[in-house]
Structure formats: C-alpha cells, structure tokens
Input
Amino acid sequence: MLFALAALLALLGILNEPDRARRLLLVAACDTVVALVALLLPWPRSRPHAPALVGLAGFAVLGMSTWSFGGVAAGTGPFLVLLYAWAALHFPRWILLAYAVPATLAYLVPLIITGQPPLILGSAAILMPIALAVALLIEAQARHLRDDRERLARIERWRSAMINTLAHDVRSPLSAVQFVLDELRDDATGMEATMLDGALRQVARISRLADALLDVQRIDSSGELRLDRQEYPAAALARDALSYLHPDEQSAIEVEVDPELTICVDKQRFEQILLNLLTNAMRYGAPPVMIRISRDGDVDRLEVRDHGPGIPETLRSSLFGQFAVGGPEGVGLGLWIVRQLAGAHGGSAAAEHRDPGVAMVVTFPVVAGP
Output
C-alpha cells in the first residue's frame, strides 16, 4: 500500500512538473513494480526476514524520486520514515540498524548529484537519526506486544489442557459412583431411598458441570456446538430440569408454562440453560423465583425472574461475558454458557429489569421440526 501510494503521488506530480513527466513516470513504474513484488511473492514460504529486501528496493526508488524532482527531498523524508516504521513493525532491530547505510545513501546521493548546497546535505544528520530512533521505539513496542501475545497463547493452551483434563478426570470416577448408587437404590426404601435419590441428583449435576467445562472448550476452539433438537412439551422440560434441584430449592420456584406448548430444543442444553439461570437467581436474587415459558410470535421465550435487588449498572455491559461476574460462589461462566447455548439454537440471552428483581430471558426461534 505504501508503494502503491507513492506511485499514485508520482503520477499526480506530473500535473505540477510536466517537464519531468518521463522521470516521474519512471518513478511511478518502479513504485508499482515494488508494490506488486511485495504483494505477489510467496513470502510465507521464504525465510522469516526475506520481506526486508523490499525495503532496500524501496530506498532505491526513494532516491530516484528525489533525483526526479531535481533534488527536492520534501517527499522523500516522510516516506523514508514510513518505510522505517513498516520495517520496525515486522523485523528485529538489527535489520533497522542495517538499513541505516542504504537509507542514508538513498537520501544523500541524489542531493549530491543534483548539486544541493551543504545546508540541505546536512539535513541528513537530523533526518536519519530521527527515523532510526522512531523505528527503534516502534520495534521495542511491537516486540513487547508479540511477547505478550505468545505468553497469552501459552496460557490459553494451558487453560484448554486443564479444562479437558479436569472434565475427563471428573467424569471417569463419577461413572463408578453413579453405578454404585444405582445398585444401592434398587434395594433401598424409605429414608435411604430419598437420600440415594438426592445423591444421584448431585452426581448428575456434577456430571453436567463437567459437560459444561467441555462445552467451554468446544466453544472456544470451534465457535459452535452440535445440537440434537427435538420437539418437547415445555412443561415436561421444566419439570425434568427442576428434578436436579434439592426439594427445598424446588419449593421456592414457581412455574408458569402452557401445558399445550411444545418447543424444539436440544433437551440437555435447554436443561443446562435453565439450571444455570435458576442457580444464578437463587444465589444472587431473592425468592420467589419464577419460570415462565411462552411463545411470542416466531420465538419461544424462557424467562427466569427473581425478586432480589437487581443487577448493578456497572455489571450490565459485561454480564454475559466469560469470567465476567465471578466471585466467591462462582467463576463467572454460567451466564456466558447460557448465551453461547442460546446462540447455538439461533436465539439470544438478555437481562431485563423488573421491579423488584431481574428477569433473564432466553429466546429460541420457532422451527417446524427437528
């Protein structure tokens, strides 16, 4: 882009300097050739610093430009600094230092050829150190940014490996625990059966948390989730999700669902959305917590409302972000997963103000079938 711009300016210069039209056309042609070389050569297959050679060609063209304008370096100086800035963004400092000699020659030689006075020749003593200093500052900042990016990439790889390991290591022993509890439940009665049912619910809940961790990794790595959407009665979906909660928690929840309403969703993901919203409502809000599932035009709406203090204004913009609203009781993944799962269904998730409290609303587009 830099040399394409230089070519255009050389062509425009013909309007002001028609006497030098041939020289300016030559400069424009050289700029265009350098631009095409920089654009078309297969740089990824070459050595890492091979594109720096384009800079050497650039200095030569800048010198030709100064000569074409009769020794006027008003345009050469800014482009020389820009060329240095480009190099600083992409190459190590030793290349910038190596550029000093060809850049100085590109600036001085045409001035000497055109017989410029010593005062103008002396401007190189100001321009070249400034160009090099600017380039070294840019290179230092670019190097720090690259180092930070590499460090973040290493942290991300470690986080991904940790999530995968944790999720898989949790699920393996859970399978054994669930098998034992199922065997004991077959012969249990009375209070023992109630206690085992509660234990099985919590095992299922931990298993779902492990699935949620894997969901985080899948979303981060591929940006999408596979869904198994089917038609389900909305009331049965809500009832099945509530079965994972403790009876005392269930008693604080009111459900308002049209018994005739059916919605097309991935059952496991829908239950995950609802449980995450209920957990948030009971943790940060106040009873009663209300579940409402309804159809509004071409979308089905899941609404979970609490009667607590609401959401502080400072949290509204980041409420559904990853790790955005964590604390002593959570890490801030619940609402982020809700939004991702809603988006996988083609819907959305939002927080709506209520007086008192807040309603978390998730929409699912109405579809004709699975």
Notes: The chain is about 65% helix and 10% strand. The radius of gyration is 33 Å.
